[in-house]
Amino acid sequence: MRILLTMIVTCFSLAVLSGCQSAQAVKPEEVVVGNTIPDFSLKSLDGKTVSKDSLKGEVVVLNFWASWCAPCMGEIPELKQVAANSKAKIVGIALDENGVETVKPFVESYQINYTVLLGDQDIFQQFNGVGIPYTLVLDRAQHIVKIYRGPVDRESLEADLRTLEQGS
Hints:
There is one protein chain. By secondary structure, the protein is α/β, with parallel strands linked by helices. Helices cover 39% and strands 20% of the residues. It has helices spanning 2-21, 70-85, 100-109, 121-126, 154-167, and strands spanning 41-43, 49-51, 60-65, 89-94, 115-118, 134-138, 144-149. The strands form two sheets. It has a five-stranded mixed β-sheet with strand order 5-4-3-6-7. It has a two-stranded antiparallel ribbon with strand order 1-2. The longest helix has 20 residues, at 2-21.
């Protein structure tokens, strides 16, 4: 009886442990088209927490940027138009070192109409970021459908979003 109980406990422990192993973090090199994004949890400018899980079920354009980045500033009007004219959720992740004290006045000055989160180099590296701007287009299951390394324009994003709408 004791041997049987030991075997049951061992099997249960192995099942639990193997289940935990399948929930491992996404490695930066695995941030490629077809895969899902890494887990994350960041604060927005209004103090709310936005996480990977809170975006599930939505088509998302995830854009890494900084206020000092000239190509990023060129994208802002494009992203604002996409935000105003599509059902996709646009999320900017600001990588400014001074965080909210730099980003909040910048967002207000540029009248950014989409969610802006406060990020850092660690989160950027988790997403396999190398240079900014860096944009990922995600489907409702948070699979990466497109990656832009460098500036992206409204027309390209709208084409990506149309393709996703047709596929759903």
